[in-house]
Amino acid sequence: MKFRISQALLVLLVFLLPLFANAAAPAWQIVPNESSITFTGIQNDAPASGKFKKFSGTIHFDPDRLNESKVRIVIDMNSVSTSYSDFTSTLVTEDWFNVKLFPEAIFEATTLKKTGDSQYQAAGTLTIRDKTVPVTLSFESKKLSETKALVKGNTTLKRTMFGIGQGEWADTDAIKDDVQVNFNMTAARK
Question: Is the dihedral of CA 75, 160, 48, 98 positive or negative?
Fold first, then answer.
């Protein structure tokens, strides 16, 4: 009798496995040459902008199954680039990103919610240097085709919460604490 029950459970599991495998939100892959992450801070009342040239991610997203959606973006901090070489070389130092010790920044979100027509928020954490801080991104998703989508969004970070800009740079009078981060990502369905 035990053998037949085990056989029946095995057969049932084989038939149900495809249903469980399809339960997760679909996976999407970032298209690097069609995607960007930029930032803008204020120094001496003037905008100072830059971008990260290299990043990757694991994205599982379905607007109809947000409870199964999740995002993990890894940014190569060594890929920081600005219009001025002096500014770029300063950002990689110990007082700023300290890329030798902390070569990656990681954003992870498992709580996504709809806020409007094609508008969403992703609540999670961002780790820069050795600091992990709660962060919420607002974004808009636009379907480009059955297998491609465009996601545009932003958030505002407090640089001092991550220990960015230490020593002589810690004062927020000359270099403001708020940093605007914008992203445009094209993703292809896997």
Answer: negative
Two tokens, residue 40: 């803008």
Give the pair of three-digit tokens for residue 78: 């060594």
What Rg value do the Cα atoms of the chain yield, rounded?
Answer: 21
Concatenating the DSSP letter of every residue in the chain gives -HHHHHHHHHHHHHHHHHHHHT-SPPEEEE-GGG-EEEEEEEETTEEEEEEES-EEEEEE--TT-GGG-EEEEEEEGGGEEESSHHHHHHHTSTTTT-TTT--EEEEEEEEEEEEETTEEEEEEEEEETTEEEEEEEEEEEEE-SSSEEEEEEEEEEEGGGGT-S-GGG--TTTB-SEEEEEEEEEEEE-
Query: Which tokens go with 104?
Result: 């990656």
Assign domain 24-189 to its CATH superfamily.
Lipid/polyisoprenoid-binding, YceI-like (2.40.128.110)
User: What is the rounded distance in angstroms from the CA atom of residue 122 to the CA atom of residue 112?
Assistant: 4
Q: How many Cβ atoms from other residues are within 10 Å of residue 141's Cβ? A: 17
In 10 A of CB 82, how many CB atoms?
16
What is the per-residue pLDDT across 45-77, written as a single tens digit (0 to 9) for each? 999 999 999 999 999 999 999 999 999 999 999
pTM: 0.85
